[in-house]
Amino acid sequence: MCTQSTVVNVGRSTGRLVDSYDGVQCCGGHVVSGDLVCCGDDITGQSYDRDRAKSCCGQQHVDVLTTHCCNDSHGRAQVSTTTVSK
Fold it and tell me: Cβ(31)–Cβ(48) under 8 Å?
């Protein structure tokens, strides 16, 4: 369980709050592997496998070659996909 960027230890020291554990992170309210990419934040994020060809755009993990990411007038990330001709 994660809350406010803090991992809640549910192992031997149940209920003990700690700043972090090696190899894990909070993403979208869940404890996930530190090897994953978290797009978003500890409360609303989504986790994805690392891929050098992709980047976060808000909570989405998008292809950097075919996708543009920008913010709308409310500051929310918007994805625009382009067509790549061969």
Answer: no
